[in-house]
C-alpha cells in the first residue's frame, strides 16, 4: 500500500452492553453492603467512596458510546481530534477475536501506554500492511483490567 494514502473509518468508542434493572439493583446492594460494613468498622470516608463509585459505575453503564473517527496516515494515527505521531508509538498488533477486531498500539507515553482502537468494518489486512511501513508488528496483550471490563459488559 502506498504510504501517501490513508485509511479512515468510524466506530463506536466501545461496545455497549445493555444493562437490565437487576444489574443496577445488584450493584447498589453490593455497594450498600460495603458501605454499611465500612461504617461498622468506623471508616465513613471509605463508605462514601464506595457509594460514589457505585454511582459513577451506574452512570457510565447507562452512557451510550459516541462515534469516533479514526485515521491512519503517513504522519501517525488519529483518534478523534488527537494525533499520535509514529515517534510516540513503538509497535502495533491486530487482534481479530470473533466479531471484535481491534488495533493495539504500544505507546511511549507514561499514562497511556496502550491504545486499543476498534476496527469496526475496516479490513485488518489493509491496516496491517499500512502500519508495517511505519511501526514494528509485535504480539501485544491487552491488560487484565481491560479484559475484565469487557467480560463484565463495560
Number of strands: 8
Q: What fraction of residues sit in β-strands?
A: 25-35%
- What is the CATH architecture assignment of the largest domain? Roll
User: SSE string, helix = H, strand = E?
Assistant: EHHEEEEEEHEH
Poorly predicted regions are: none
**Number of discrete helical segments:** 4
Radius of gyration, whole Å: 20 Å
The CA-CA distance between the termini, in Å, is 35 Å
Give the neighbour order of strands across the main sheet.
1-2-3-4
Main β-sheet: number of strands, strand sense, barrel status? 4 strands, antiparallel
Kindly provide the name of the CATH class of the largest domain.
Answer: Mainly Beta
Count of discrete structural domains: 2
- CATH topology of the largest domain: the name is PH-domain like
Task: Please explain how this structure is put together.
The chain is an alpha+beta fold. The chain has 2 domains: about 5-15 and about 65-150, PH-domain like; about 20-60. The chain is built from 4 helices and 8 strands. The strands form 2 sheets. It has a 4-stranded antiparallel β-sheet with strand order 1-2-3-4, with helices on one face. It has a 4-stranded mixed β-sheet with strand order 7-6-5-8, with helices on one face. A hairpin with a 6-residue loop joins strand 6 and strand 7. Helix 1 (about 20-40) runs antiparallel to helix 2. It starts with 6 loop residues before the first strand and ends with a helix. The model has no long low-confidence stretch (mean pLDDT about 90).
Amino acid at each position: 500500500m502506498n504510504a501517501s494514502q490513508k485509511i479512515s473509518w468510524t466506530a463506536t468508542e466501545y461496545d455497549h452492553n445493555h444493562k437490565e434493572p437487576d444489574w443496577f439493583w445488584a450493584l447498589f446492594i453490593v455497594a450498600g453492603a460495603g458501605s454499611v460494613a465500612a461504617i461498622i468498622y468506623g471508616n465513613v470516608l471509605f463508605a462514601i467512596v464506595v457509594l460514589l463509585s457505585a454511582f459513577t459505575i451506574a452512570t457510565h453503564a447507562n452512557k451510550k458510546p459516541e462515534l469516533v473517527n479514526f485515521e491512519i496516515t503517513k504522519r501517525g494515527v488519529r483518534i478523534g481530534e488527537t494525533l499520535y505521531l509514529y515517534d510516540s508509538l513503538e509497535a502495533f498488533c491486530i487482534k481479530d477475536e470473533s466479531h471484535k477486531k481491534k488495533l493495539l498500539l504500544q505507546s511511549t507515553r507514561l499514562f497511556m501506554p496502550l491504545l486499543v482502537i476498534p476496527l469496526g468494518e475496516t479490513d485488518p489486512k489493509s491496516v496491517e500492511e499500512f502500519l508495517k511501513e511505519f511501526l514494528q508488528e509485535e504480539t501485544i496483550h491487552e491488560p487484565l483490567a481491560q479484559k475484565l471490563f469487557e467480560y463484565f459488559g463495560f
